[in-house]
Amino acid sequence: MTHVTVPARKLTPVVRFLIAGMLNTLLSIAVYQAALWVTGHMVAYVIAYAVGILFAYVAYARHVFDAALSKQRFGAFAIFYLASGGIGTLVNTALIEQFALHARVAIFVTVLIMLPVNYAGSRWCVRGTRGHAP
Question: Are 120 and 84 in contact (CB under 8 A)?
Answer without folding.
Answer: no
